[in-house]
């Protein structure tokens, strides 16, 4: 599913974030220590190989909402943007911190002159953020920050499950049409 947002294409796909061979960068829903972990972080680190964790060591720890960038190593992507999303019910205010994760990820990618990036549904796995709320926050954050981007021309949400894809699709149709 594709939407036009100013001069930018926004795509929603169901799939695996580490299989996005046509994207210059992907986003890691990281833990504070930028270690292998579970979920998205585990999948990205396993696919990228051990050099990713070595590159991450001096960048850790990161704070909630912060984003840092590394190379993609054995991934098909040139870069990985790592961001720490909020733990729902713990890190307050959740929505503001989630917006910050997306905003900082977009800014760091744009500064690196990256043209295409893929996002997972940050904080919706082990961090417990309700998918409907997260979809609304993330999609509105993209919409509200597009005019500040100079280099990005494709943002793709890569949603692991069909149910997450359907939630994002429903929210995107309301926000972008």
Give a written overview of the molecule:
This protein is globular. The longest helix has 18 residues, at 94-111. A seven-stranded mixed beta sheet has the order 1-2-7-6-3-5-4, with helices on both faces. 37% of the residues lie in helices and 20% in strands. The chain has helices spanning 39-48, 50-56, 94-111, 131-145, 162-176; strands at residues 2-5, 8-14, 25-29, 67-71, 79-83, 116-119, 154-159.
Average pLDDT metric:
97
Q: Compute the number of helices.
A: 5
Shape by Cα distribution: globular
Sheet with the most strands, sense and barrel status: 7 strands, mixed
Number of distinct beta strands? 7
Q: Structural class, from secondary structure content?
A: alpha/beta
What is the strand arrangement across the widest sheet? 1-2-7-6-3-5-4
Order of helices and strands: EEEHHEEHEHEH
Which percent band covers the strand fraction?
Answer: 15-25%
**Which value, in Å, is the CA radius of gyration?**
15 Å
Percent of residues in helices: 25-40%
Give the termini separation: 12 Å
Low-confidence stretches: none
Descriptive tags:
177 residues; alpha/beta; 7-stranded mixed β-sheet; 37% helix; globular
Summarize the SSE layout with pairings.
Layout: E1 2-5, E2 8-14, E3 25-29, H1 39-48, H2 50-56, E4 67-71, E5 79-83, H3 94-111, E6 116-119, H4 131-145, E7 154-159, H5 162-176
Parallel strand pairs: 2-7, 3-5, 3-6, 6-7
Antiparallel strand pairs: 1-2, 4-5
Helix pairs in contact: 3-4, 4-5
